[in-house]
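cron nightly-structures :: item 1 of 1
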Amino acid sequence: MIGKQKLLSGVLITAAVTLTACGGDETGEGGTITLGHTTYSDGTAFAYVWKQLLEEEGYDVNITTFEKAFLFEGTVNGDLDVAFPAWLPFTDEAYVALDSDEMELTQDHLLYEGAHNGLVVPAYMEDINSIEDLPDAIDQFDGEIAGIDPGSSLMQIMNSDIIPHYQLDAYELTNSSEQAMMQQLDTAYQNQEPVVVTLWSPHYAFQDYDLKYLDDPDNVFGEPDSIYYMGRNGFSEDFPKADSWLKNSFFEEDQLAELLSLRQELGDEEEAAAKWIEDNRELTDGWLDN
């Protein structure tokens, strides 16, 4: 599974050498918890909310960012106590599966339901409504689909499944980042120009722009995913209280949309998480009530 990604675990160990996890006491109170997250907006938002909640409960929390492949590797190796997120059963199936014996990841680790990937255009592009429309519209888009980083699961799905299935080989799928892709979308949107991007839900873009997913008539992207957090093997034994709180947590669509919009609006992870927790204190208190 993860070995197929041909990762050099030593790279991760070097990067995380100062982040070695420290167990709590016998009751799971206190101690140091290391959180890892992807660079993508949802993973970052989950991680910073939980950083602040755990710190409120007396834990020391280290937090760090990894590319997705290294995030899974770090959880398996035990360099990370908790990692956000895993999209299953489709998007991240190359890396992990529910009930894996390499980490703690079960249905109890569910954070969000109804996540999905796709190709997206502005709603003002009234004549482009399906991925099947793209081959004949290549000149309109200057032969380009705006992508994100090449190591992402979404870009792998694009290259291995979507492009060959829908005969999009004449397009250039650009490798960049979420931030660069969003800048390209914003520039085109402000000028009412054609643009097609790789995007996913939940994402703040759908609150900030009037966008639409292109129909995927053959369902190549698959059914909607659920989003989970991952724990290293042994996390629930070392931190039973924190493990229980995490398992209590769940985000409804409007709650996560609010969090992602705050993150974009405020431009600061800590500030956005603090504001969201303040506005949703009854919800988060319920997570910690056990």
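cron nightly-structures :: done
The longest strand covers residues 110-122.
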